[in-house]
């Protein structure tokens, strides 16, 4: 049974052609046929732009069901998204600014040793979020992991003696950067960035855990060798070792034991990793806040160019670590002739470059706090480390972005960084 009139089933273009045979089409008929005719196919490049726009939320469904251009995201939403993506640098900078604006609250926090408890909490959280089920997968890449540990704990601390030769006032800026060189790798950002860039996260996790555990023994020795001798100060190595065990190793073990003892806690931590990262960042920002509050009057007396010089040295230091590790991996990859070298595999090379080129700030803070002014004003020692930590996170993030966007080899680090700096200049 036919439920529609046959004329309604004819396409408009067919009606137009029939009309042309009988009479000339009117302007209204031509316009209606043109509007109803199918659109030409969209070029591939334009389709890609539409897909990107849709992914970015540039096209939404209107009230009438049709898709129209949506207004750009509100300023508040954009700022919130930026804060979530850069919470750690913002927290560190916020702590410094708060200490400069009003030192009274920070001095009160120092009176009750809040920095010690915040450092303890940071490493408890690190133990809670530490997943070791994939550590066995890193055994295949043990030569790359061994090189990474040597670079973190032996090679890069050697740069401290060259930094100590630089002349800058106040002297604590140089000493703080040299101490930063002697630290182990970061506890979380190295593994996170390795996952982002497609590196081997198990290898990154192994280097992170082992370097921080061995760092409890090696860091005091490196400080005494490269910093204490150059500064003319005899560092309390035994006391520093005991402090690192108490404030770093024990809370790390406590967090890890709690995680392994309860599957419910482990699932809760894994399901709220972003919240724990925010808590860790807040605890970390407590330390520069207290140190800056205590040294506010001295910090305000320092010239701006001294801060700029310290920041520039920190940037050059991180770039030097990137270039050194990338070059060494390239050399090691060519030494092995049989089959594909472990050092030449992208996933392993990226993990080593990212993890071995970063230094941790909480350990530096714990060391500075334990020394009690033996190497100078604590606030001056911590501020260059805060700036260097922010710089290394930003540079490593740009490396990950460029690696994902252009699939560049990690060995082309110098070219990558040059292009990254040119993009944002």
Description:
The chain has 425 residues and is an all-alpha fold. A hairpin with a 5-residue loop joins strand 1 and strand 2. It is built from 22 helices and 2 strands. The termini are far apart. The longest helix has 32 residues, at 304-335. Helix 11 (171-181) crosses helix 21 and helix 21 (378-406) packs across helix 22. It has a single domain (86-411), classed as Na+/H+ antiporter like fold (Up-down Bundle). It has a two-stranded antiparallel sheet. The model is unreliable at 1-67 and 410-425 (pLDDT under 50). It is 73% helix and 1% strand.
Features:
single chain; 425 residues; two-stranded antiparallel sheet; 22 helices; 2 strands; disordered C terminus; Probable sodium/metabolite cotransporter BASS4, chloroplastic; chloroplast; transmembrane helix
